[in-house]
Amino acid sequence: MAKKYIENGNDVYIVTTREPKHNLEPLQVAEKLGIPKNKVIFTNRELKYKTINKMGIQLHFDDKLLENEMIEANCNCETFLVYNKNKTIKETKKI
């Protein structure tokens, strides 16, 4: 899904609540998708809505309902709840 947005000329970021220490998975996913490392944002266990709002991100996909609810309540950003099974996107659903 991210590749489609990149191909259409959109800026795509990975925003994760993880801490950067010892968390290579987001960087590996970014490399696989063609997202530059500087577009991987670690919030260090803080909810993502502050980062989403600060960056002006307009569209967000997340598998955590709480993250989507907080983003919709505090940001001018449309969210999609992503059901993730076996690390593949199965379905997206507007909340």
> Which regions contain 5 or more consecutive residues with pLDDT less than 50?
88-93
Class computed from helices, strands and strand pairing: alpha/beta
Number of helices: 4
Number of domains: 1
Shape: globular
Count all strands and give the number: 5
Strand content: 25-35%
The CATH architecture comes to 3-Layer(aba) Sandwich
Beginning-to-end CA distance, first to last residue: 18 Å
- The CATH class turns out to be Alpha Beta
Strand order of the largest sheet: 3-4-5
Report mean pLDDT, rounded to a whole number. 89
Q: What is the H-and-E element order? A: HEHEHEHEE
The CATH superfamily appears as HAD superfamily/HAD-like
Description:
- With 95 residues, the chain is α/β, with parallel strands linked by helices.
- Strand 1 (14-16), helix 2 (25-33) and strand 2 form a beta-alpha-beta unit.
- The chain has one domain (2-94): HAD superfamily/HAD-like (Rossmann fold, 3-Layer(aba) Sandwich).
- The protein has four helices and five strands, in the order H-E-H-E-H-E-H-E-E.
- Helix 3 crosses helix 4.
- It is globular and about 30 Å long.
- Strands 3-4-5 form a three-stranded mixed sheet, covered by helices on one side.
